[in-house]
Specification:
The structure is a single chain. The protein has 133 residues and is mainly alpha-helical. The chain has a domain at 25-115. The chain has helices spanning 2-12, 16-28, 31-104, 106-115. Helix 3 (31-104) packs across helix 4 (106-115). The model is unreliable at 124-133 (pLDDT under 50).
Length: 133
């Protein structure tokens, strides 16, 4: 409390230079200009709040849609993995049947190979050539 009394005494006993500086600073600030600055800041704040609300709504909508799409993608991935496994199993059985037929009927298998030469199983499919090739 003693400090507050001392501060009040300091303000009461201000020097003429301090009073002149305070007066000069008060003259520099125009209350109309300050009011315009405050109004502009309030206007900008309202626009930012509206923008923030719009972005929040868009984010919420995107989150809901993402969850729905994410579930669909998981289902599609599971379907593709299942299809891949099924195809691998089918091709494995086809290769096994080809070996059995080749071992059991070598002449007929050789005759069929002359007419139709199947691609190598290890060879990857090549992309279709473009008309400019």
């Amino acid at each position: 409390m003693a400090e507050k009394v001392q501060e009040n005494e300091v303000f009461k006993t201000a020097t003429p230079a301090a009073e002149a500086t305070t007066h000069y600073l008060n003259e520099l600030t125009n209350s109309r200009d300050l009011q315009e600055v405050i109004e502009t800041q309030v206007s900008i704040l309202k626009r930012f709040e509206k923008t923030n609300e719009t972005l929040w709504r868009a984010n919420s909508l995107c989150e809901v849609r993402y969850e729905a799409i994410h579930g669909d993608f998981r289902k599609h991935i599971a379907t593709l993995v299942e299809a891949k496994n099924s195809l691998e199993s089918i091709f494995k059985r086809i290769r096994m049947l080809k070996r059995v037929v080749k071992a059991k009927y070598p002449e007929a298998y050789a005759a069929c190979e002359v007419v139709y030469t199947p691609p190598d199983d290890d060879e990857e499919e090549r992309p279709a050539s473009s008309p400019t090739d």
